[in-house]
Amino acid sequence: MKTEKDKALEIAQLLEDYKGGDIAVIDVSQLNSWTDYFVIATVTSSAHWKGLYKHIKDYTKENDMEIKVPNRKLNSGDDWNLVDLGSVVVHLMSEEARAFYDLEKLWHAGARLV
Length: 114
Prior knowledge:
By secondary structure, the chain is of the alpha+beta class.
Protein backbone atom coordinates (compact mmCIF):
# COMPACT_ATOMS: atom_id res chain seq x y z
CA MET A 1 0.00 0.00 0.00
CA LYS A 2 1.34 3.43 -0.96
CA THR A 3 2.02 5.99 1.73
CA GLU A 4 1.20 9.65 1.25
CA LYS A 5 4.94 10.25 0.86
CA ASP A 6 5.03 7.64 -1.94
CA LYS A 7 2.15 9.42 -3.67
CA ALA A 8 3.82 12.82 -3.36
CA LEU A 9 7.03 11.43 -4.86
CA GLU A 10 5.11 9.70 -7.67
CA ILE A 11 3.30 12.93 -8.51
CA ALA A 12 6.66 14.70 -8.59
CA GLN A 13 7.95 12.06 -11.02
CA LEU A 14 4.81 12.42 -13.13
CA LEU A 15 5.35 16.18 -13.34
CA GLU A 16 8.97 15.66 -14.29
CA ASP A 17 7.99 13.11 -16.96
CA TYR A 18 5.69 15.71 -18.53
CA LYS A 19 8.27 18.49 -18.45
CA GLY A 20 7.32 20.29 -15.24
CA GLY A 21 10.34 22.37 -14.28
CA ASP A 22 12.43 22.52 -11.12
CA ILE A 23 10.37 19.97 -9.16
CA ALA A 24 10.39 20.19 -5.37
CA VAL A 25 8.73 17.99 -2.76
CA ILE A 26 8.61 19.37 0.77
CA ASP A 27 7.42 17.49 3.85
CA VAL A 28 5.33 20.04 5.75
CA SER A 29 3.53 17.52 7.98
CA GLN A 30 5.16 18.84 11.16
CA LEU A 31 4.49 22.48 10.26
CA ASN A 32 0.71 22.57 9.79
CA SER A 33 -2.44 20.53 10.30
CA TRP A 34 -3.98 20.70 6.82
CA THR A 35 -1.54 18.85 4.53
CA ASP A 36 1.57 16.69 4.65
CA TYR A 37 3.43 17.38 1.40
CA PHE A 38 3.87 20.19 -1.07
CA VAL A 39 4.81 19.29 -4.63
CA ILE A 40 5.96 22.36 -6.55
CA ALA A 41 6.65 22.63 -10.27
CA THR A 42 7.31 25.44 -12.72
CA VAL A 43 5.11 25.55 -15.83
CA THR A 44 5.78 27.44 -19.04
CA SER A 45 2.27 28.28 -20.25
CA SER A 46 -1.41 27.82 -19.54
CA ALA A 47 -1.51 24.90 -21.98
CA HIS A 48 1.39 23.30 -20.10
CA TRP A 49 -0.27 23.53 -16.68
CA LYS A 50 -3.60 22.34 -18.07
CA GLY A 51 -1.84 19.30 -19.47
CA LEU A 52 -0.13 18.62 -16.15
CA TYR A 53 -3.45 19.03 -14.37
CA LYS A 54 -4.98 16.37 -16.64
CA HIS A 55 -2.17 13.95 -15.76
CA ILE A 56 -2.60 14.69 -12.05
CA LYS A 57 -6.34 14.07 -12.41
CA ASP A 58 -5.67 10.72 -14.10
CA TYR A 59 -3.20 9.81 -11.34
CA THR A 60 -5.77 10.54 -8.62
CA LYS A 61 -8.30 8.22 -10.25
CA GLU A 62 -5.75 5.40 -10.35
CA ASN A 63 -4.57 5.93 -6.75
CA ASP A 64 -7.73 6.44 -4.71
CA MET A 65 -7.23 10.18 -4.24
CA GLU A 66 -9.59 13.02 -4.94
CA ILE A 67 -9.11 16.61 -5.99
CA LYS A 68 -10.75 18.95 -3.53
CA VAL A 69 -12.94 21.44 -5.45
CA PRO A 70 -12.51 19.45 -8.69
CA ASN A 71 -14.86 21.59 -10.79
CA ARG A 72 -13.01 24.84 -10.31
CA LYS A 73 -12.87 26.78 -13.56
CA LEU A 74 -9.34 26.66 -14.92
CA ASN A 75 -8.29 30.24 -15.56
CA SER A 76 -5.63 30.49 -18.25
CA GLY A 77 -4.37 33.78 -16.79
CA ASP A 78 -3.34 32.33 -13.45
CA ASP A 79 0.35 32.31 -12.57
CA TRP A 80 -0.22 29.93 -9.67
CA ASN A 81 -2.59 26.99 -9.74
CA LEU A 82 -3.07 24.88 -6.66
CA VAL A 83 -4.32 21.29 -6.81
CA ASP A 84 -5.48 20.21 -3.35
CA LEU A 85 -5.37 16.45 -2.91
CA GLY A 86 -5.75 16.58 0.86
CA SER A 87 -2.49 15.17 2.18
CA VAL A 88 -0.62 16.38 -0.93
CA VAL A 89 -0.94 19.90 -2.33
CA VAL A 90 0.45 20.48 -5.82
CA HIS A 91 1.56 23.99 -6.80
CA LEU A 92 1.86 24.62 -10.54
CA MET A 93 3.50 28.02 -10.89
CA SER A 94 4.90 30.27 -13.58
CA GLU A 95 8.59 31.07 -13.23
CA GLU A 96 7.72 34.63 -12.15
CA ALA A 97 5.21 33.54 -9.50
CA ARG A 98 7.60 30.89 -8.21
CA ALA A 99 10.38 33.45 -7.78
CA PHE A 100 8.05 35.99 -6.17
CA TYR A 101 6.36 33.66 -3.65
CA ASP A 102 9.43 31.46 -3.06
CA LEU A 103 7.55 28.66 -1.30
CA GLU A 104 10.75 26.71 -0.71
CA LYS A 105 12.12 29.58 1.38
CA LEU A 106 8.78 30.21 3.10
CA TRP A 107 8.52 26.53 4.11
CA HIS A 108 12.26 26.03 4.68
CA ALA A 109 11.65 24.26 7.99
CA GLY A 110 10.11 21.35 6.10
CA ALA A 111 12.34 18.55 4.89
CA ARG A 112 12.98 18.80 1.15
CA LEU A 113 12.63 15.32 -0.34
CA VAL A 114 13.30 16.29 -3.97
